[in-house]
């Protein structure tokens, strides 16, 4: 693995050398370059990093999946005290062998890098780092054993539970691999949570699940929710465009090489769309998102399904949709896709797993389906009653604007990192 970008600049406060130093530096570790904010994990890491930079000098250490990601730029770079980006080149088979030999999870060995470890060690030994903020569990391996400062671990979701679910549903040998991954990740999550001053999760449900599985004190575990860029997701700034066919348009958005998204659209296309087409034969189901796999492309043209792939502006498809669907069969945490659709004033029909963690009411802000049959029924009801659909979407937009701004969701972050209210107020002046 080679370092693709690295720099270090002198700074005495939150990206502005004129500000007084209110606390030591923060080292922010994340498994992907946190810009641009164009997928779920990068959206969260991007906004957390931006908030951290408001009140402390921040160093960033992260990975890039490819050269294109490493070449992306952001205004955040100008405010960082230092930055070290390493290109991930380790093949999955090699990570698997390392995992078997070392007794570690594949999630951890996939992100193992001696180079990144050395850079972090040098920064800790010679810098002024008071706090390490870790985004995503696999990056916790880089917390030095000797570090005596504050450690904040943002797990976001309980990943071990997801792999356990995969293990229960799959066939050997993948079932064995996933069960092993779930078991080892659960132990790693416990060790990391015990080491951290705070463990953060995107929802109360995820935080409670981790507490139950780990047995750690509730004082060390809390929910820190996701927000939405409310300036970006405004329907009035997006041109109205007719997309899809002449009939109703159902839209699913997401990263389309991600297993839960793949399984969701496959299930919806094969099992839900035929039920909808009986009542609304011209309905189109559009799958919108980057990197569709072969399995996803195989759905194109069947049961009214259209695989769109990556688009320049996801908002155009959200605005064109009659209903946005989120039929995930396995889901963890908060689904940004639902919040984005709600912010655009769209009626959403979601599975129970996808809706978990969103503080909204079934029948008032969105609709939650318990099974495939109910998904089809709820969608047909909305297509039959556009006035009801508009009412639901309007309620959804108001809820998101009241509760899901990033400023609102990250309000407690300075205190979590050790800055008291008086200090943060001083920093903001």
TrEMBL record:
Residues annotated as signal peptide: none
Keywords from the UniProt entry: Transferase
GO MF term set: glycosyltransferase activity
Pfam families: Glyco_trans_1_4 (PF13692)
InterPro entries reported in the protein's UniProt record: Sugar_tfrase_PEP-CTERM_Stp1
Protein name as catalogued: TIGR03087 family PEP-CTERM/XrtA system glycosyltransferase
Classification lineage: Bacteria, Pseudomonadati, Pseudomonadota, Alphaproteobacteria, Sphingomonadales
């Amino acid at each position: 693995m080679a370092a693709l970008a690295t720099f270090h600049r002198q700074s005495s406060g939150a990206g502005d050398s004129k500000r007084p130093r209110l606390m030591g530096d923060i080292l922010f570790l994340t498994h992907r370059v946190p810009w641009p904010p164009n997928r779920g994990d990068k959206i969260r890491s991007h906004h957390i990093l931006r908030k951290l930079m408001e009140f402390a000098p921040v160093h960033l250490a992260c990975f890039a999946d490819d050269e294109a990601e490493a070449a992306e730029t952001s205004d955040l770079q100008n405010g960082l005290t230092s930055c070290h980006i390493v290109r991930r080149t380790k093949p999955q088979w090699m990570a698997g062998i390392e995992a078997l030999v070392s007794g570690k999870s594949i999630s951890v060995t996939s992100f193992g890098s001696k180079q990144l470890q050395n850079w972090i060690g040098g920064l800790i030994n010679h810098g002024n780092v008071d706090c390490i903020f870790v985004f995503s569990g696999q990056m916790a391996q880089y917390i030095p054993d000797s570090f005596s400062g504050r450690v904040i671990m943002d797990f976001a979701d309980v990943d071990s539970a997801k792999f356990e679910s995969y293990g229960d549903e799959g066939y050997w040998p993948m079932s064995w691999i996933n069960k092993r991954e779930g078991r080892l990740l659960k132990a790693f999550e416990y060790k990391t949570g015990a080491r951290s001053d705070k463990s953060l999760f995107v929802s109360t449900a995820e935080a409670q699940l981790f507490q139950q599985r780990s047995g750690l004190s509730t004082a060390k575990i809390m929910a820190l929710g996701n927000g939405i860029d409310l300036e970006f997701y405004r329907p009035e700034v997006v041109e109205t465009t007719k997309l899809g066919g002449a009939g109703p348009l159902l839209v699913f958005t997401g990263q389309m090489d991600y297993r839960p998204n793949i399984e969701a659209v496959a299930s919806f296309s094969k099992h839900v769309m035929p039920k909808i087409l009986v009542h609304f034969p011209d309905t189109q189901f559009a799958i919108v998102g980057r990197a569709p796999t072969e399995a996803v492309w195989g759905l194109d043209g069947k049961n009214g399904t259209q695989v769109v792939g990556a688009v320049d502006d996801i908002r155009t498809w959200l605005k064109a949709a009659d209903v946005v669907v989120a039929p995930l069969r396995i889901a963890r945490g908060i689904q940004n896709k639902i919040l984005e659709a709600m912010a655009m004033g769209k009626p959403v029909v979601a599975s129970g797993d996808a809706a978990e963690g969103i503080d909204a009411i079934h029948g008032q802000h969105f609709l939650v389906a318990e099974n495939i049959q109910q998904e089809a029924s709820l969608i047909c009801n909305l297509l039959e009653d556009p006035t009801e659909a508009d009412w639901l979407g309007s309620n959804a937009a108001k809820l998101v604007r009241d509760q899901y701004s990033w400023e609102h969701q990250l309000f407690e972050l300075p205190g979590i990192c050790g800055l008291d209210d008086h200090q943060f107020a001083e920093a903001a002046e």
